[in-house]
Specification:
Length: about 350
Amino acid sequence: MGVFKCKETGTWYVMTRYRDWKGERKQKCKRGFATKRAAQDWEQKFHMQNAADMDMTFEAFYEIYTKDMKARLKENSWITKQNIVETKILPYFGQRKISEITTKDVIAWQNEQLAYRDEKHKPYSQTYLKTLHNQLSAIFNHAVRFYDLRANPASKVGNMGNEERREMLFWTKEEYQKFAVEMMDKPVSFYAFEMLYWCGIREGELLALTPADFDFQNSTVRINKSYQRLHGEDVITSPKTKKSNRTIKIPQFLCEEMQDYLGMLYGVKKKDRIFTVTKSYLHHEMDRGSKAAGVKRIRIHDLRHSHISLLIDMGFSAVAIADRVGHESIEITYRYAHLFPSKQSEMAKKLDFERSEL
């Protein structure tokens, strides 16, 4: 076994033996190398990867990481991770042995990211910097946990940047109703925004809805998928989190509206998407409607904030709201705490009463 030259094509190929994950002996053939050195390099890399030898390059280990993790992540999540690794991490660490990358190397890489400025002299956002570091650290963590790398140098260095929470904007019921009036000239827009505001669903969840998801007898809509546009194709994935799989009770007026809307759709089948517009279309309609209604422009996702804010104002608990919108209750409590009525006075009065009973 070894490296050989093909007389017919003039290229080089590798014939090698190895043991698979079951311990069984296998044979591997790889053809088409332009030079003997390229074939030898491939063979060395193959055996290092098969043995999980931490003297392999970072780039070689990333191939292992890809095989291990790609199937476990949603396609859109993997695309984001892949883009970051291939454009911001591999150019710096790719050819270095993963076992020899030090905290000093990570600090130097961080400093390059911190020093970046675009054509308008703007740096990366704090959130993006944090994301870059997290992706690097995730690969090292994988090597530590499953392939016996001694330590994660990125973890030792610590993160750069921090998560920036965007200002949470929302419409009051009165503001939304002004906006909704302006949407009535386009049924698809009107009914889409009705679902977003009165159900608090995410944009991707809206665009994945089918007639089969509605149960008008029980006044519910089932949320069990999300729409994405990937590589120029429509892709339906599972919802954002396990908690996002839910059935929402919808008010009677919205049941009637959605029945009217479905009746307008000629030839629609039970599993056809009912909102076949693009996300950019919805954003354009937000621009148009908010301007015509004279209300502040908010993001599409802020309609979800608006729904949650309305439910808080109506007196529902964080647990009940979280169940409806597919969040954890602690997240609702944390993010929307300033909107819940203060209980401090009530607490103090009850403590006075308990003290007086002693």
